[in-house]
Each structure stands twice: as C-alpha cells, then as structure tokens.
Fold:
Amino acid sequence: MNAILPTVPRRAPAALLALRLLVLALLPAALLAPRPAAAVQAVVVARGLDQPWALAFLPDGRMLVTERPGRIRPVAEDGTVGAPLRGVPPVDATGQCGLLDLVTDPAHATNRLLYWTYAEAGEGGNTVAVARGRLEGDALVDVQVIFRQQPRVASRLHCGSRLAFARDGRLHVGLGDRFGRRADAQDPANHLGKTVRIESDGRVPADNPFLGRAGARPELWSLGHRNIQGMAVHPVTGDLWHSEHGPQGGDEINLIERGRNYGWPLVTVGREYVLGTRIGEEGPRAGYEQPLKVWLPTSIAPSGMAFVTGNRYPGWQGSLLVGALRGQALHRLSIEGRRVTGEERLLVDLGARIRDVRQGPDGWIYLLTDGSGAQLLRLLP
Ligand SMILES: [Ca+2]
Structure:
C-alpha cells in the first residue's frame, strides 16, 4: 500500500472509511500511481563495434572507442563509426587482454595527447603497457610506451586495466594480477595486482609512496588488487575510486589511497569458483583496506564507471554509475562521503553486458555494451 494513505483497520468505522475515500479523491493521481521504476532509456548512438572497451571524448565533439582486438575508432557526433586511427602499436589480443582503456590528457585541447593501455607481446609472455601519442588527423604520432607492467607473464587473463588522471596531473594505472600468481598482488617487487602512479611522460613522481624502499617498484601506489576494471575520480573530493573483479562473490568498489593494501588474496570475501571454499579471511584486518561495496553472493563483474556531476538526471547528482558485465545492468550507487548508501539496478530489460560508462562533456551518460556487434548508447532520463 502507498505509505501516504492513512492505515485503515479491517473493520474500519464508517467515518474513517469516509475520510480515506476523501483523501483518495483529493490526492493528485501522480501520487497514487505506483512508484515508477527509474525511467531511463538507452538510445543507440553507434552500432557494429567489435569488442569495445573504453570511450573518450574529444574537444571537437567526436568520441573515440577502443576495440580490444587493437583498434581505436573515432565516432562522429551523428554516430558514424570511422576507420581505425593509424599509428597504434601491435597489440597482443588474447583472452581478456588486448587494447583496453583510453583517456585524453587533461590538457588535450592544446596538446592533443592520448593515453591507452594494451597487452604487448614479448619474450616470456605479454605485459600490460601504457602508451601515449599525439592525435593528428586520423593518426597517432610520436607514440611512446611510458609504462610496462613487470614481470611479463604468459597469461591471457586479468590484464585489467584502467587509467585515470588525478587532480594533481599524475596518471594512475589500475592493473590485474594476471591470474596465475595471485600471491604476487601482495609483493611490492612487481606490478601485478597493483595500481601505479606515474607522470604523464612515464617518470616516477618524487613523492611516490614506495620510492626508495628496498625491493619495491617505485611506480607503486597501492597493492592487493585482483583485476581492476573501472576507475573514476570523485568530482568533489578528487579521490580515486575503482571497481575490481573478485572471485565468486568478491567484486569490490574501493577508494584507492596512497600506499594502502587492498587485501587480495589475503583479505577477501570472495570464494573459489565451483568449490566455494574460502581464499582469504573476510576482514577487517589491521593494515588492509575493506571495500566500500561488495556484491554478494553472486558476482556482477563490475566494469567501467563514472560519477554523475550534471543535472541531466534528476536526483542522480553525485551518484556513481557502474556497469555490470555478468550482471547485465547499470548499477547506480548513492554515495555519502565514503559510504555507499544505496543501490539501484537500471537497464535490466536491455539484457546487455555493459563494458564502459562515461559522462560526456555534454552531461549525458554514455555506455558501451560488450562483445561483437556492440553498441554505443546514450542514457536518457
Ligand atoms: Ca579488496
């Protein structure tokens, strides 16, 4: 029953019944209607994308979409999908790896720099590399690799990866544990299962937390991650938030802070697939950060994410939108400070795996679906 109506006992006195009828007659119809499910709809902007992974916006109104097999495609404002940009280095597209995330430089309007992550083949396996290049027409020029995850691993799995520029101009890279050697996520001597922080040309910032520590990689910013799939900078605090794939039941949202340990695989609520056995302790445990949100008991496989800053969507300002691959939905998380206070599942009827979520400079939310024949969607309230 609608909460705004007075409660009426089963055998209501006639006066009360009359009062209730009067209230019903006076209430506007809109208040009596069942509360509608969030009436957002997804409108197709572009289709026919092949395993798209990331979306970025250019100052001229075009968008760029990465395709995991190794392409970066421009998408015109009218949705026309262009030929791949020239100048992208060879990509090792295998399993979950390939050409993955893409961001523009904070000063892209003047320097036209782009940054992307991709799996690079090499001796002993592939590595997740970060490249940057300058966009000139339909080509990337002066392409340099500014970071390589060490060591190389012979793996097709857990390549992460996401990029985000913090407010101080430093580039954060969210990396995976490459699946086979999960304990490496706790070892500061490698880049597996870590986030790293570099300057936009790849140099190590002088104030990095592990810089100068014996046996530690100087690029490290945080450790104990499994497979980072989404990253976004909070629009008010500047904090770095991310989504991470756990094993069964261990998908997480975290707020990433300098030098902290996020637990994997020692502290996790996730369990082994199939067997359901524990992997680590559930925490909290001193010295390890608890996630701000986990999905239990079923993994949704969270993906790209974005904070809503505009007023296009009534009541959503400050929300964190997170795509779900396995969960085939868009999750809207209400945030207060560092607490996730509410959750709404959207676009359930679409039945699509969501790979990336971004807010455009026009204030609209854009989504990429996953797989072959995928779509770029605009979310309308
Ligand atoms: Ca964790």
User: Anything to note?
Assistant: The first strand starts at residue 41 and ends at 49. The CA atoms of residues 190 and 378 lie 39 Å apart.
